């Protein structure tokens, strides 16, 4: 079996423990150990990182192009002869890239990362198509949500059919953009929609996305999209809760005159949701929920620390207290780590006796 250096170390540790506990014989231990063949270099990881960096570079390149209005105008003049062609051309290119990606998935499944990159190029040309479509249909109303909805349909369908978590990520991002743009337009681009500002709206949006994720769990797991949906649902929920704990349900003008005491209920709600997330993770052994809960509980505590004590303490005292608190957290984590390690060693010794 071909394994990386890290995988070999983990497997051999497991084999050592099984042999010491008597789960496998010495002969089986040697036989299983001999099947491990270390890969001299992890080309799979290099391939993944190379394509990731390539995607980031393309995004930066696209951003640089769009920020240069003269260059954008020049490219439009070169690649299109009419406004209709400016819409049709990127749509055709995106369709060709998606079809190419689907074909590679069926016939050349081993080229996973390059196929994902091809689909990503399709995503970029779809974005250009939506941009040009918006330019063509612009009436000055500012109602851009339908464009985001079209993007949701395209990215959602492509991501679901291709089982691509990358394309599905863009679907979830586009879905959030559609929700924000639609509610903003319905509110007349004011601070409130149905009495809710943007952070509260996205708290509900993230909660609904999480609920839908678990409701459609079997389907999403089958399409290998469950993890990405869950990550984005938790991200929307906790970031919205964090922003809400700072601004509450106030518009910007009112927020400046609001005391920290009035924002305390929102901070408590943020903390309660994080604790609930940690509690569920301990019951279900869900590492993702535990990570999100612990991370944002810490963010909540330190946000409150900065909020309540930044002005009242001297900066030296403030950062000294912050440093001491981090040292105590690190020390406590170190004790837990050593306790777990000692228990593991004790269990090994008791089994060997």
UniProtKB/TrEMBL annotation:
Keywords: Membrane, Transmembrane, Transmembrane helix
Residue stretches spanning the membrane: 49-66, 72-99, 111-131, 143-161, 166-186, 198-221, 233-251, 263-282, 289-306, 312-329
Protein name: DUF2157 domain-containing protein
Taxonomic source organism: Proteus genomosp. 6
């Amino acid at each position: 079996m071909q394994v990386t250096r890290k995988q070999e170390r983990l497997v051999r540790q497991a084999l050592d423990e099984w042999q010491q506990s008597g789960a496998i014989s010495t002969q089986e231990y040697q036989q299983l150990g001999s099947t491990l063949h270390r890969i001299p270099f992890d080309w799979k990881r290099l391939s993944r990182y190379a394509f990731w960096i390539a995607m980031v570079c393309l995004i930066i390149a696209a951003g640089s192009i769009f920020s240069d209005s003269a260059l954008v105008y020049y490219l439009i003049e070169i690649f299109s002869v009419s406004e209709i062609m400016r819409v049709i051309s990127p749509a055709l290119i995106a369709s060709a890239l998606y079809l190419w990606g689907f074909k590679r998935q069926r016939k050349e499944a081993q080229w996973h990362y390059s196929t994902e990159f091809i689909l990503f190029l399709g995503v970029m040309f779809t974005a250009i198509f939506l941009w040009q479509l918006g330019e063509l249909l612009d009436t000055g109303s500012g109602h851009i949500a339908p464009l985001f909805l079209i993007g949701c349909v395209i990215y959602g369908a492509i991501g679901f059919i291709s089982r691509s978590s990358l394309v599905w990520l863009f679907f979830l991002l586009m879905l959030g953009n559609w929700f924000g743009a639609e509610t903003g337009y319905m509110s007349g681009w004011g601070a409130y929609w149905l009495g809710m500002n943007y952070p509260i709206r996205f708290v509900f949006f993230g909660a609904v996305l999480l609920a839908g994720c678990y409701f459609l769990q079997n389907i999403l797991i089958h399409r290998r999209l469950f993890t990405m949906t869950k990550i984005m649902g938790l991200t929307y929920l906790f970031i919205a809760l964090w922003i809400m704990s700072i601004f509450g349900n106030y518009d910007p003008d009112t927020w400046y005159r609001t005391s920290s005491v009035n924002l305390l209920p929102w901070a408590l709600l943020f903390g309660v949701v994080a604790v609930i997330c940690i509690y569920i993770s301990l019951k279900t052994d869900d590492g993702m929920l535990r990570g999100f809960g612990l991370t944002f509980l810490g963010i909540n505590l330190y946000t409150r620390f900065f909020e309540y004590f930044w002005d009242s303490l001297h900066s030296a005292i403030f950062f000294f207290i912050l440093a001491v608190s981090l040292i105590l957290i690190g020390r406590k984590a170190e004790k837990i780590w050593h306790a777990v390690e000692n228990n593991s060693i004790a269990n090994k010794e008791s089994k060997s006796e």
